[in-house]
Specification:
InterPro entries: RelE/ParE_toxin_dom_sf (IPR035093). This is Plasmid maintenance system killer protein. The chain is of the alpha+beta class and 106 residues long. 36% of the residues lie in helices and 23% in strands. The protein has a five-stranded mixed beta sheet.
Length: 106
């Protein structure tokens, strides 16, 4: 699959080893590389979601994240994706990287 960044801020964060190591630790930095490789290796969104590190968000937060896709980076932090045009179906071959987020905090 292909991916694009939502904006320059998230691109800079995802591509900066220093930022990742400082904010997510060495394991989070390594997992970011793994998640990006998983996106690139998948042929479509359904294939990506077969990996145990990815899941579709169900909107427990009141619906704000419903339908977005989360990839585990650390125990709390996730790489948040949006599948533009078509939602989560086998037809989606491009995703947008929206954020690195701890959506577990209240």
């Amino acid at each position: 699959m292909e991916y694009q960044y939502h904006d320059e801020r998230i691109k800079a964060s995802c591509e900066s080893d220093r930022w990742l190591a400082r904010n997510l630790g060495p394991s989070g930095q390594k997992n970011m590389d793994r998640r990006i490789n998983e996106i690139e290796a998948a042929t479509n969104i359904v294939e990506l979601l077969e990996a145990p590190t990815w899941h579709v968000l169900d909107g427990r937060d009141g619906g704000a994240r419903r339908g977005r896709i989360a990839g585990k980076l650390t125990g709390r932090y996730r790489l948040i994706l949006s599948a533009p045009e078509g939602g989560v179906s086998g037809l989606v071959v491009t995703v947008e990287i929206l954020d690195i987020e701890d959506y577990h905090k209240q």
